[in-house]
Amino acid sequence: MEKKFIQAIQSFAHPLNDLRDLDVLLKGINNKKFVLLGESSHGTSEFYHLRTELSKKLILEKGYTFLAVEGDWPSCQKVNEYIKGWDLKSNHARDVLQAFSRWPTWMWANEEMVEFIEWLKAYNQRQPLERKVGFYGIDVYSLWESLDEIVNYLEETNSPNVEAARKTIACFEPFNRQPEKYGVSAAFYSDGCQDEVIKLLTDISLKRNIYLDNEESGLNLEVNALITANAESYYRTMITDDKESWNIRDRHMVETLNRIMMFFGNQAKGIIWEHNTHVGDARATDMADEGIVNVGQLLREQEGDENLYIIGFGTHRGSVIAADQWGKNFKQMMTPPAQAGSWEDLMHRANAKNKILLFNNENRHVFNYPIGHRAIGVVYNPLYEHLGNYVPSKMSERYDAFIYINNTNALHPLTGQRDRNRVPAENQQ
């Protein structure tokens, strides 16, 4: 089987020598509603660089209208306001990226993102309002930050919903913004705030039309209310059921994408940046056996293959930014050569060069056998990666294309970042 895989890779792979070689992906992408760009780690420079360059092409040549990333909505909203010219205080992308204070900050507060954010700002300055590209975070963790955003906005606008928001935030106050503390209380002692967050989300959703303006206040308010409801469910569930809390998180991501699409209308097209474990269809992995879903699967089921294009990323060796324990400081680590017989190993053995592999009707049957596919999380120990960092995957069913970089380098976190808020260790990939 290994020989068959290697021969097929050699036959079907396209070289990736410079950025012009990314154009081979554009024909398959065409004008699909969503393009999902993965990564096999959150700490690899080349993945960010290539996603940036491919995103630029999609914006310039295909008219894509927003980016959605695996980040907190409130922090990403600061980026959105900056690139759209609504932030009159920040002088540079570096200032804006200080908003990313939740561990692991390096995912978005890094040098690689600085250049892209400045590019987006310059691009938007040349566009009318309706064509400005947006930047949104679709993760679920920002319960307290989203509540703060809701209360502040409703107070500023003298909204009739402000009392419901105050009541909701008062319910969470005893837990001192500690997700684990709230989760234990809600899961085991029925001392939670589920009724309050559902009422708040319902009230805001019913009155969404009164919050419309040119700076997306209505969308911002509605998504923060959605986060409040889904984060409460996530933190309550994570104490007793890791798998279901994962599902809550990925369903929330898709629900947020749907709210963004609804806000901008049918003409919108989105580029999504997340880890391979979120974008690569879970049905093509052993996640399916455990009842776990993800964004790639849910969007394929919702939109159909004709409206979705999923690109996975991987490497054979190099260096990476990660932490050796949850919540600890990041450091640069070596990424050892891929495990023998894994997908990354066979890509290397086919030829030790960067390449793009497109999965299509001609070759899909060749690559639809399970093979170990490396996934590196924000917590990583290279010495023990063989124990849990390889996900059995049918590659041609998991992705529509795969970008392989033979030797990669660590991401460049911004200096001076400080992790003030940490999410629980469960389900962060």
TrEMBL record:
First and last residue of the signal peptide: none
CDD domains attached to this UniProt entry: Ere-like (cd14728)
Entry-linked InterPro entries: Emycin_Estase, Hydrolase/PRTase-associated, UCP036794_erythomycin
Pfam families named among the record's database cross-references: Erythro_esteras
Biological processes per GO annotation: response to antibiotic
Protein name per its UniProtKB record: Erythromycin esterase family protein
Organism of origin: Cytobacillus praedii
Classification of source organism: Bacteria, Bacillati, Bacillota, Bacilli, Bacillales
